[in-house]
Amino acid sequence: MRHGFDEIIAKMKGCGMKKVAVAAAQDSAVLEAVKEAKARGIAEAVLVGDEAKIREIAASIDMDLAGYRIIDEPDMIQAALKAVKLAHDGEVDMYMKGLVDTKNFLKSVLDKEAGLRTGAPLSHVAVFDLPQFDRLLFLTDVAFIPYPTLEDKVNIIRNTVPVCRACGIECPKAAVLAAVEVVNPKMPATVEAAELTKMCEEGELAGCVVDGPLSLDLAVDPEAVKHKGASDRKIQGDADMLVFPDIHAGNLVYKCIVHTVPEMKNGCILTGTKVPVILTSRSDSFETKVNSIALAAVVAEEMKKNG
Amino acid sequence: MRHGFDEIIAKMKGCGMKKVAVAAAQDSAVLEAVKEAKARGIAEAVLVGDEAKIREIAASIDMDLAGYRIIDEPDMIQAALKAVKLAHDGEVDMYMKGLVDTKNFLKSVLDKEAGLRTGAPLSHVAVFDLPQFDRLLFLTDVAFIPYPTLEDKVNIIRNTVPVCRACGIECPKAAVLAAVEVVNPKMPATVEAAELTKMCEEGELAGCVVDGPLSLDLAVDPEAVKHKGASDRKIQGDADMLVFPDIHAGNLVYKCIVHTVPEMKNGCILTGTKVPVILTSRSDSFETKVNSIALAAVVAEEMKKNG
């Protein structure tokens, strides 16, 4: 079966609506996404923020607030802390950024009392549904960790495996990317990629197959694998997860897909947290915001299933 | 007027065929591209290599060798040195890799006596013609310089400006890319990008507009510029040249476009040399090889015009 965002949304319909707490919900783009997520049966929202402004925006976008729980808190930092606490206490399944700025939103996520720390470092995953692929692609980390160390990359992979699994991929194949597919001591990214491959072989990275260093063509194009005679590699153009050497490479590829591939769909979440965190940016499209809520919802469902 | 590979090829038809010397021409994919370049009126070739094998391959691909100059030299390293000398001596306008491996091909390019050194360091430019853009995009460096220093980036931009100009762009806009569009002292790529911008403002980088650090959306998407309120930037989603922080970022974006954008066209050359150098790889498509010859041909024409 093809796994894409349509399938994720269809899957969510079968397991009941999830609940998302929104930090400083007085943001029209966020409210529109929240409204759509409810209409599609994905999630209902607890709106924490300036109630007067929330009601004003809702009226302007024809959003019926009946049935929504609203917590009036005009101060954005306080609103974030109140919203994250709902997630911390298990009253909601996901936590989403509204009008509060990213810095204060992340502060709430990391708050020692009310936040969502698990001990694992946070990382970001961007999930793409591209028309020419029969599967989802999980890009990490393209937005959160600037220059991941080897240890960071271990955590990035560990954080992303359950996201893949929630989307129907039992044992994801993780390609550790670089400009080249051979280890070159002058290119630290290739050395670390080989190290990660070895750690997976030795059982330190479980529930996935890791192969690297890999160039992008060997990671995603079976034809290129044949052409380059790379039939001995663990990944044969069939990677699910793409692990980037650093944030520049990851972010530039991420934005390249968003801005050059027609009919692409995507969604993003933060992982390594107690519940999935939705941190969309102003420039994300309406559809991306809705997909991000859907992605968080399937991950929340998977986390619930696994206790 | 839209500038794309069709326009480049049309332009070449107006200025007479160029000549390309091929190093170790006994390679069927290379000969097919050379044959097509002649058929399209772009270039004729001098085939240096194992003549028996060249004739055998030519027969198998229905290539009429009448009118081709062939220099019989079965040794691949010697073939490269003889072919590059033709370019060095001005007998041909471009130099192209055949069956000889990349290492020995580059050795011939850099050969002190017969080679194509100009004093400038070499760099690579990948040119993309994407259906959703009204112009060509010049990506550099995605294949040659692993970790360019600030000085290398100056040279990369200087090497690429004439390539843009040869393709009809009088004053190219160069976006120095990073994951973010603001200077962050913890991200050296952003600091160097700001430095390059300043050097251009002060006249050290001529014939182009340089702006950086820029995220990819601000570089190529005017809508994102509006959305982020970046109307003060020199580049408003209208970049021609995309300068990458390092080879991982550049190469991954390059391969991302090749493998995910339907109907993309591309071509690549090495610059900073006495004549344009065509170094296509096994995995490049037939069309990419032909486009690379066409790109080298317009650059050679521009170099001839400017003496």
Structure description:
Chain A is an alpha/beta fold. In chain A, 42% of the residues lie in helices and 18% in strands. Chain A has helices spanning 5-13, 28-39, 51-60, 76-88, 102-110, 150-166, 188-201, 216-220, 222-227, 247-260, 286-305, and strands at 18-23, 43-49, 69-72, 94-97, 123-129, 137-140, 173-177, 209-214, 241-243, 265-271, 277-278. In chain A, the strands form 2 sheets. In chain A, strands 8-7-9-6-5-10 form a 6-stranded mixed beta sheet, with helices on both faces. Chain A has a 5-stranded parallel beta sheet with strand order 3-2-1-4-11, sandwiched between helices. In chain A, a hairpin with a 7-residue loop joins strand 5 (123-129) and strand 6 (137-140). In chain A, helix 2 (28-39) crosses helix 11 (286-305) and helix 4 (76-88) runs parallel beside helix 5. The radius of gyration of chain A is 20 Å and the shape is elongated. The A-B interface holds A 130-132, 142-143, 146, 177-180, 186-187, 189, 215-217, 220-221, 224, 227-228, 244-253, 255-262, 282-283 and B 130-132, 142-143, 146, 177-180, 186-187, 189, 215-217, 220-221, 224, 227-228, 244-253, 255-262, 282-283.
Largest sheet of chain A: 6 strands, mixed
Mean pLDDT of chain A: 95
How many β-strands of chain A, per DSSP?
11
Oligomeric state, counting identical vs distinct chains: homodimer
Q: Taking Cα atoms only, what radius of gyration of chain A do you get, to the nearest Å?
A: 20 Å
Helix content of chain A: 40-55%
Alpha carbon gap, first and last residue of chain A: 27 Å
Structural class of chain A: alpha/beta
Unreliable stretches covering 5 or more consecutive residues of chain A: none
Question: Could you tell me which chain pair has the largest interface and how many residues each side has?
Answer: A-B, 41 and 41 residues
* Shape category of chain A: elongated
- The sequence of SSEs of chain A as H and E is HEHEHEHEHEEHEHEHHEHEEH
How many helical stretches of chain A?
Answer: 11
**Beta-strand percentage of chain A?**
15-25%
Question: How are the strands of the biggest sheet of chain A laid out side by side?
Answer: 8-7-9-6-5-10
